[in-house]
């Protein structure tokens, strides 16, 4: 009997080992590592500077024609729109077309038609597409993407490089890597000769709507592609003010091998897109970056339509912030000055993480003020095509007018002093001077509302009112990023604990901007978003539909439990 029993278990173990091999490396996913794409320097005389200039010249030679793309089919209709250069609004960068409501519905239908086949594609093959796309971005498409971000979104050379090239490549490579690593985890099987427990990630049943912003090409890349790693299908609504760079990203997806219809490229008016997707029973999720009011509206529309859905739609949103620097009296001043200049004014203050409010100790304010204003005075405002430009134009006329309204408020408010800048000019481009404001009212709208432009407001607090100041910071309705500066270890410890809920990304003696994929997973809470942490494995789990599987190798021969025989 012992011999027979041994032979039976040996056979079972062979089956279990085969199952485990499949689970631990599903569909034969090979192990691999990734690293962040190196940032090129574009020094004078360098190969990359020459390549970039050639790409700018090529894209500047004509207005690029960008179609709607559904199921691989290019669609052009009569609703013609143009993307212009923010720093030269007579220059038409791209011609594109708004999809009508029937065309948006067509994109939904097409996505659903290809969903099953895409989900059945081996996960190793899907991951391979991500790695291939990352490589294409870093090589063949690098300079074209950077040129598109400079011409269409007014990014200077460095801002284009870290966004359109490096971060986009990072998102593709790291999301492939994260997917592979997530597949390695499997539940416990305490009695492996009898029970095998396993987990697999399925796609969501329906489609995901990706709505991306203008300010980061890489965000569009990530929002549109990340859900597809698990077999999801996506309708991508790119921003009309980032159309050219987003279209080039879409061309990368095509060349990498993403099948037609897996990601449909659907430029459209926001209200039309939102109405059609939220009324579809097959809406499985919304992947969004943009304003708080827009995300709240989408959430409301989903709530209103909840009874019609076949799933509970997953809502992932990043909605910006009113990000702070808290500068303690023990801070190393030069470090605080330079980090604040960069955080407040890089990419014209149009980063979700940009420093928009500063709280600084009264005892160090005079010296900080002197050094900070001297640094701001050195900032060049101009065309991003000129290598010494640090700040360029804001994205469009609507943004220009909104920021101008805040500047008018500053100039007319007796509690506010404009220390630098404050002037605007839209005769050629949408230019707003880097502006530094001091207020005596820490609850002024300049300290509370997201401006999304090169405007920084400073509140000077009494050294004795540090705790009260931290309470003020903590009262914000937004919670994206924040930074504290100081050398006093007790202050750093206290502030890190007291301010832990007011920033999803928290920095100590560093600026509130500059999160890197795989290094500082990005996202915030409160009204800044759902904090799903793009650039980390947690984000991908949001788009997975996990299934737990229990496989029994020990057939049950009696329904009674052993104690029942006594």
Which helices and strands, and how do they pair?
Elements: H1 2-24, H2 47-60, E1 64-66, E2 68-70, E3 73-75, E4 80-85, E5 88-97, H3 101-120, H4 123-138, H5 142-153, H6 157-182, E6 195-202, E7 207-211, H7 217-225, E8 233-237, H8 243-256, E9 263-265, H9 270-278, E10 283-289, H10 292-304, E11 314-318, E12 323-327, H11 333-345, E13 355-361, H12 365-377, H13 397-412, E14 416-420, E15 424-425, E16 431-432, E17 435-439, H14 445-448, E18 455-461, H15 466-474, E19 478-479, E20 481-485, H16 489-498, E21 505-508, E22 525-526, H17 537-541, E23 545-552
Question: What would the keywords be for this entry?
Answer:
566 residues; globular; Aldehyde Dehydrogenase, Chain A, domain 1; seven-stranded mixed beta sheet; disordered N terminus; single chain; 2 domains; Aldehyde Dehydrogenase, Chain A, domain 2; alpha/beta; five-stranded parallel beta sheet
């Amino acid at each position: 009997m012992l011999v027979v029993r041994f032979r039976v278990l040996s056979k079972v173990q062979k089956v279990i080992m085969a199952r485990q091999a499949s689970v631990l490396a599903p569909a034969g996913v090979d192990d691999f590592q990734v690293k962040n794409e190196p940032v090129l320097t574009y020094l004078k005389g360098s190969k990359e500077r020459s390549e970039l200039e050639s790409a700018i010249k090529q894209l500047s030679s004509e207005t690029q024609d960008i179609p709607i793309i559904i199921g691989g089919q290019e669609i052009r209709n009569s609703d013609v729109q143009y993307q212009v250069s923010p720093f030269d609004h007579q220059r038409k960068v791209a011609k594109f077309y708004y999809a009508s409501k029937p065309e948006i519905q067509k994109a939904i239908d097409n996505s659903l038609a290809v969903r099953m086949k895409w989900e059945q594609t081996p996960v190793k093959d899907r991951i391979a597409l991500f790695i291939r796309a990352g490589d294409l971005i870093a090589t063949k498409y690098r300079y074209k993407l950077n040129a598109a971000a400079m011409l269409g979104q007014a990014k200077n050379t460095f801002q284009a490089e870290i966004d359109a090239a490096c971060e986009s490549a990072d998102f593709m490579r790291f999301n492939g890597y994260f997917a592979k690593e997530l597949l390695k985890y499997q539940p416990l099987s305490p009695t492996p000769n009898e029970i095998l427990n396993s987990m697999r990630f399925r796609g969501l049943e329906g489609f995901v709507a990706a709505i991306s912003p203008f300010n980061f090409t890489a965000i569009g890349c990530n929002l549109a592609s990340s859900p597809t790693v698990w077999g999801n299908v996506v309708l991508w609504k790119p921003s009309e003010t980032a159309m050219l760079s987003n279209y080039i990203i879409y061309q990368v997806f095509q060349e990498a091998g993403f099948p037609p219809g897996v990601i449909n490229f659907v430029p459209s008016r926001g209200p039309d897109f939102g109405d059609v997707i939220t009324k579809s029973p097959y809406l499985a999720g919304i992947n969004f970056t943009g304003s708080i009011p827009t995300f709240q509206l989408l959430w409301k529309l989903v709530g209103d339509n909840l009874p019609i859905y076949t799933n509970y739609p997953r809502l992932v949103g990043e909605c910006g912030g009113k990000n702070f620097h808290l500068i303690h009296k023990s801070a190393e001043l030069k470090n605080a000055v330079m980090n604040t200049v960069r955080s407040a004014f890089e990419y014209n203050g149009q980063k979700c993480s940009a420093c928009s409010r500063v709280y600084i100790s009264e005892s160090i304010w005079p010296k900080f003020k002197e050094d900070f204003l001297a640094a701001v005075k050195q900032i060049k405002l101009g065309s991003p095509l000129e290598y010494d430009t640090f700040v360029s134009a804001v994205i469009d006329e609507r943004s220009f007018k909104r920021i101008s309204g805040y500047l008018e408020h500053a100039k007319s408010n007796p509690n506010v002093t404009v220390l630098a800048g404050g002037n605007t000019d839209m005769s050629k481009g949408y230019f707003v001077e880097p502006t530094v404001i001091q207020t005596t009212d820490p609850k002024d709208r300049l300290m509370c509302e997201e401006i999304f432009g090169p405007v920084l407001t400073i509140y000077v607090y009494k050294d004795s009112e540090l705790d009260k100041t931290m309470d003020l910071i903590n009262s914000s309705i937004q919670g994206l990023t924040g930074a504290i500066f100081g050398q006093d270890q007790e202050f750093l410890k206290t502030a890190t604990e007291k301010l832990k809920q007011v920033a999803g990304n928290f920095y100590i003696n560093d600026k509130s901007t500059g999160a890197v994929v795989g290094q500082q997973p990005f996202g915030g809470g409160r009204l800044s978003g759902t904090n799903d942490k793009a650039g980390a494995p947690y984000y991908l789990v949001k788009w997975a539909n996990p299934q737990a599987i229990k496989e029994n190798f020990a057939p049950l021969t009696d329904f009674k439990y052993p104690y029942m025989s006594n």
